[in-house]
Amino acid sequence: MIPYYELYQMKADRYVLRQKVISLARKEGIKAAVREFGCSRNTVRKWIRRYEPGKTASLQEHSKRPHRCPNQTSTAVERLVLKIRRQTGFGAERLKMEFDIPCGIDAIKRIIRQHGLVKPRKKKHLTKRCLREVKRNWKLFGQLCADTKHLYDIPHYWWQMKHLRLPVYQYTVREVVSGLTFTGYADDLSKTFSVLMAKQVCLHLAQAGVNLKSVEWQTDNGPEYKESSQERGVPSLVRSLGSGHHYIPPKAYTWQSDVETVHALQETEFFDRETYLSSADFWNKLTTYWLYFNIARLNRNKQWMSPLHIIQKRSAEISPQIVSWQPLDLGRLLNHYVPHSKPKRGHDLPVHPFISEADDRAQLFEPVGELV
């Protein structure tokens, strides 16, 4: 006869086996059932005690889960995890690091998973991980990636943008090694604003002690960055200051992954969540976010360090004030380049950023012909 426990492991409907054990025990006694099925007397007694005639469920196994778990996460902590997760969208590791939640990372993951707050993520390719290691060894402020972002395609931001007349485009410059990010905002996508943004970033870097001759700028081939012999732009500006510049190859979008990562993060963490009472409220919240991003936000891909931590660790010559960058209102800043006296003909034209204050501004407004 096959022992009880071997039959127990083989049978899907185990309650049938238990019925036979109970039937034999009632007819011939517990000892006979023990000899026949090769199980213990306690096992036979247990199923005789539990069995209720006509109820198959009485022969099903009971849950072996403990009635009390002293290490179980409290309800208050679960509510805290869910609240912060819904507000920020952060992952378990970042929630633990930034908010010091009194439970483990695995517990936070379990809470998020049980309440359906997990977002599917694409698996990162091994090559991408290897590139991070390579970039960590690059020279600090050796490369700046510049790009623009359209803000009108963000649903939560769009209606506020229309109602409060908020900026439509974002001009972004990011340093690859530290992740330090500079931003400016405008209502138009133009070469004027990209040049103005680059000039302000260069001025800020120079004041903080960065050697501009060691900086290399990288941009895409958009019209706001392209230049010709007749129209100068960002490449001519940065080269005149001693920095280098190169364009990414056509359709090589992954070359701009550093700055595109920032665009994705700020859309998830800021634009998809914040609601503004006024234009001033928008600028206050925007400034707070980018100060947090550059000073306090820990980057998992950079060994859980913020841009400020990386800069202080890698270079003692660069002033920590470099992270105090505040988002620029490029439209308002451009007004400082418009002369107070209007030219006799045509429209008001901004002073080109390449022209120094010592230059004769009158030559910028020489007549080029009658306006039609």
Summarize the structure.
By secondary structure, the protein is an alpha/beta fold. The chain contains 15 helices and six strands. A six-stranded mixed sheet has the order 5-4-1-2-3-6, with helices on both faces.
Would you report the number of β strands? 6
Termini separation: 109 Å
Portion of residues in beta strands equals 5-15%
How many DSSP helices? Answer: 15
Q: N-to-C SSE series? A: HHHHHHHHEHEEHEHEHHHEH
> What class would the helix/strand composition place it in?
alpha/beta
Give the uncertain stretches in residue-range form: 354-372
Radius of gyration: 34 Å
- The general outline is elongated
Strand order of the largest sheet: 5-4-1-2-3-6
Mean pLDDT: 83
The helicity comes to: 40-55%
Specify the biggest β-sheet. 6 strands, mixed
How would you characterize this protein structure?
This protein has 372 residues and is α/β, with parallel strands linked by helices. It has 15 helices and six strands. Strands 5-4-1-2-3-6 form a six-stranded mixed β-sheet, sandwiched between helices. Helix 2 (14-28) packs across helix 3 and helix 6 (92-99) crosses helix 7. It starts with a helix and ends in a 38-residue tail after the last helix. Residues 354-372 have low confidence and may be disordered.
Give the tags.
372 residues; disordered C terminus; alpha/beta; 8% strand
Question: What topology emerges from the helices and strands here?
Answer:
Blueprint: H1 4-10, H2 14-28, H3 30-37, H4 41-50, H5 75-88, H6 92-99, H7 105-114, H8 126-136, E1 143-150, H9 155-164, E2 169-175, E3 181-186, H10 191-207, E4 216-219, H11 234-240, E5 244-247, H12 257-271, H13 279-295, H14 307-314, E6 328-329, H15 330-334
Parallel strand pairs: 1-4, 3-6, 4-5
Antiparallel strand pairs: 1-2, 2-3
Helix pairs in contact: 2-3, 6-7
